[in-house]
Design brief:
Number of helices of chain B: 0
Number of helices of chain A: 0
Strand content of chain A: over 45%
Order of helices and strands of chain A: EEEEEEEEE
Helix content of chain A: under 10%
Structural class of chain A: mainly beta
Helix content of chain B: under 10%
Distance between the termini of chain B: 39 Å
Largest sheet of chain B: 7 strands, mixed
Largest sheet of chain A: 6 strands, mixed
Shape of chain A: globular
Shape of chain B: globular
Radius of gyration of chain B: 14 Å
Oligomer: heterodimer
C-alpha cells in the first residue's frame, strides 16, 4: 500500500517561513494536497493539486511537489497558523492516502 | 455555500453496525461532478479515508476496511450514508463527511462536515 511520511512536528518563529515536507514514492508524479486542522475543528483544505489555493486561503500558503517530496510553505507565519497539517494524495491501488500529520508550533 | 452535517448514534456496541448519515445543504448532492466521502480520526491520531460514493452509486472503499463498509446515497433526501459492520473499540473515532473533487490522479476534500464522535463500547 502507498504511504506518505511527514515529520511529527515543525517549529517556526512568528514572521518566518515554515516548510512542512511530505514524502512518498514518486510523489512528484502524483497530485498532493494539504489540510490544516486546529484543535477541536474539522480539517480545512489549504492547497490542492500541488500548489492551488482554494478561495479564502491566504497567499502566504503555497505548495510544491517534485521528486519524492511535496512541500507546504507558509511565508510570514502567524500565530493563527499553529495547527496540525496533513498531506494527502491519490494512489491507483490505495485510493486516498493521508500523511500522519505534522504539528506546527509558532513560538 | 455547501454545508455538510453528520448525524447518527454516538454509542455503538461491539460487533454491531455503525450507521451514520451526512446531510448536504446549500446545494444539490447531484449537481457538479463530485464524489461524497467519509473520513475518520481516532482521538489524538491522524486521518483515515473510509470510502466515497458518486451520485450514480459508484463507490470506492479503503482496501483495509472494504469488507466491512457500505456507503449509499439518497439523492431525494440530499444525503449519503455510512454503514460499518462488526465494529470494535478500534473503530472509535470522530467521523467526518466531505465533498470530494476528483479527476485523473487527483482527489481532494472540501468542505468537511463538523464531525461526529462515535464510541464503540458495551
Amino acid at each position: 500500500s502507498y504511504e506518505l511520511t511527514q515529520p511529527p512536528s515543525v517549529s517556526v518563529s512568528p514572521g518566518q517561513t515554515a516548510s512542512i515536507n511530505c514524502s512518498g514514492d514518486r510523489l512528484g508524479h502524483k497530485y498532493a494536497c494539504w489540510y490544516q486542522q486546529k484543535p477541536g475543528q474539522s480539517p480545512v483544505l489549504v492547497i490542492y493539486q500541488d500548489y492551488k489555493r482554494p478561495s479564502g486561503i491566504p497567499e502566504r500558503f503555497s505548495g510544491s511537489d517534485s521528486g519524492n517530496t511535496a512541500t507546504l510553505t507558509i511565508s510570514g507565519t502567524q500565530a493563527m497558523d499553529e495547527a496540525d497539517y496533513y498531506c494527502q494524495a491519490w494512489d491507483s491501488s490505495s485510493y486516498v492516502v493521508f500523511g500522519g500529520g505534522t504539528k506546527l508550533t509558532v513560538l | 455555500q455547501v454545508q455538510l452535517q453528520e448525524s447518527g448514534p454516538g454509542l455503538v456496541k461491539p460487533s454491531q453496525t455503525l450507521s451514520l448519515t451526512c446531510t448536504v445543504s446549500g446545494g444539490s448532492i447531484s449537481s457538479g461532478s463530485y464524489y461524497w466521502s467519509w473520513i475518520r480520526q481516532p482521538a489524538g491520531k491522524g486521518l483515515e479515508w473510509i470510502g466515497r460514493i458518486y451520485t450514480s452509486g459508484s463507490t470506492n472503499y479503503n482496501p483495509s476496511l472494504k469488507s466491512r463498509v457500505t456507503i449509499s446515497v439518497d439523492t431525494s433526501k440530499n444525503q449519503f450514508s455510512l454503514k460499518l459492520s462488526s465494529v470494535t473499540a478500534a473503530d472509535t473515532a470522530v467521523y467526518y463527511c466531505a465533498r470530494t473533487s476528483s479527476g485523473w490522479g487527483t482527489n481532494w476534500f472540501d468542505p468537511w462536515g463538523q464531525g461526529t464522535l462515535v464510541t464503540v463500547s458495551s
